[in-house]
Design goal:
This protein is α/β, with parallel strands linked by helices and about 325 residues long. About 30% of the residues lie in helices and about 20% in strands. It has ten helices and twelve strands. The protein has helices at about 45-55, 80-85, 105-115, 120-130, 150-160, 180-195, 205-210, 230-235, 240-245, 255-260, and strands at about 5-15, 20-30, 35-40, 60-65, 70, 85-90, 165-170, 200, 215-220, 225-230, 300, 305-310. Helix 3 crosses helix 4, helix 3 packs parallel to helix 5 and helix 4 (about 120-130) packs across helix 5 (about 150-160). It is globular. About 40% of the residues are buried. The mean pLDDT is about 90.
Length: about 325
């Protein structure tokens, strides 16, 4: 049984101009102990997917099944035991920490909410800070006294405070200096091995996603267009959008970089207020056919557990 199973998840937002289709019929599984990377352009619905899974947003349709339990319509009060098992690392370490609380209080707060024995709190706070590369002397300091990388470590310690099984990492390195990003990713990998964690790793840094993920799901305009094992996806992308996305990854070798020709996409991303009919990528797709306007573009297995929503790409 997968630890997390998402079936036809939908999340729309009402605006004066109409409904924004942020997450539109998304389905995927995450096995215990694996990392599923979720990638795509800004505004494609990655963060909304993560927040809907943890029920910071209530889903409009579909199912969220965690460890065999359907939590889609669970009330906030009854959601508490599941929140202990599913935690989130937020994108912005400057906005996600309460500036009026000390680091010790920030890490301790989840233990209070989930009723961990009070006499264990201080010892657990010190152990968690050490686990993420900080020290117990820093527990009495405030978030503004730390760098961005250190603040993200505090956020990770807070997420670990209640011994979760699944952590949704919402672009946890995008706001950090490049020199710090690798440190945070390596630490997340070490924590996964030591604590048996499962990750949904949301990001737009394609190189980093390849490094940390067991499988990768590609998202475009609220829909998953391709899912495959990390090496399989990067070595043999099938969907035209994935091909274009991966072609934009910079190559550090100047000789190879000169030979690499990015696959440019024409036109603008359509509005999520009024997504295109049929395959939602057909307005920008270099391989689009007339029938794509009415095509029901669903994920199909192209072999080797490689799923793609384009029937005209890759293996049949």
């Amino acid at each position: 049984m997968p630890l997390l199973e998402i079936k036809n998840l939908k999340k729309y937002f009402d605006t004066p101009a109409g409904k924004v289709h942020s997450v539109d019929d998304v389905s995927f599984n995450i096995e215990r102990g694996e990392t599923l990377g979720l990638v795509g352009e800004s505004g494609c619905g990655k963060t909304t997917t993560g927040r809907t899974i943890i029920k910071l947003y209530e889903p409009d349709d579909g199912k969220i099944i965690f460890d065999g339990h359907d939590i889609t319509r669970v009330t906030p009060k009854k959601m508490l035991p599941f929140r202990k098992r599913i935690q989130m690392i937020f994108q912005d370490p400057y906005a996600s920490l309460n500036p009026r609380m000390t680091v010790g209080d920030i890490v301790r707060e989840p233990m209070i909410i989930h009723k961990f024995p009070k006499d264990e709190h201080e010892d657990r706070v010190n152990k968690l800070l050490k686990l993420v590369g900080l020290n117990s002397e820093q527990a009495g300091r405030y978030p503004h006294e730390f760098s961005g990388g250190q603040r993200q470590r505090i956020g990770i310690a807070r997420a670990l405070a209640v011994e979760p099984e699944l952590i949704i990492c919402d672009e946890p390195i995008s706001a950090l200096d490049v020199s710090i990003q690798a440190q945070i990713v390596n630490m997340l990998e070490d924590l996964q091995k030591d604590l048996g964690l499962t990750y949904l790793f949301i990001a737009h840094d394609l190189s980093m996603v390849r490094h940390i993920s067991s499988r990768v799901a590609v998202m475009y305009l609220g829909k998953i267009v391709e899912i495959a094992a990390s090496d399989e996806l990067y070595s043999r992308p099938l969907h035209p959008y994935t091909v274009s996305l991966l072609s934009s990854i910079p190559v550090p070798d100047p000789d190879k970089s000169d030979k690499k020709i990015p696959v440019a996409l024409e036109g603008e991303i359509p509005s999520a207020l009024n997504p295109p009919s049929g395959c939602n990528f057909h307005t920008r797709c270099p391989k689009a056919k007339p029938e794509c306007k009415n095509l029901n573009a669903v994920l199909n297995d192209k072999g080797n557990n490689h799923f793609c929503a384009c029937p005209y790409s890759g293996r049949s």
